[in-house]
Amino acid sequence: MRYRLSDVFRGLVIYPLGDTVASLILHEFCIYRLAGMAAVGALLYSLEIPAWFSYINSRYNGLQRTLMAILYFNPLWIARHLLFIYLFTGHISAVHWSILVVAVKSFSLNLPVAFAANYIIQNKISLNWRFFASAVFSSLMAVYYALSRVIFA
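RESULT FIELD:
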C-alpha cells in the first residue's frame, strides 16, 4: 500500500465537501469538523479505500467486486465515520451504542443505491479512478449519513 498524491488531494477535498454540505443543511457547520474530515479523507480514506479496491480488483470479478465493496462500506464503517463527526465537533460524550443502530438503519435503507453505485464504480470505472468515483459517491452519501443521524436517532 502506498499513498498516491492524487488520492490524498481527492480525499482532502471531496470528503469534507460532502460533509460540509451536510453540516450546512443541519445548521451544524464547524471549522474543526471541516478540518478533521479533510484530514481523515487525506490521511486515512485515501490509503485504505484504494488499497481495498486494488485488493478486490486482483481477486474478484464483476458482481463479486460489487459485493466486496459493499462489505467494506458496512455499518461499522458508517459508525466510524459518524464517530469522526462527533469527535471533530466536540460531541464525543454523545457517542454510545445507538450510533451503531443509526449506522445499521442507514446502511440497510441505502443498500439498493449503494449496490447500484458500487457496481458501476467497481465494474465500469478503471482502478485508477475508483477512489475518485467512490469519494464522490461517498461525499453525496455523507449528506445522507449526516441526515440519517438525525432521522434515525
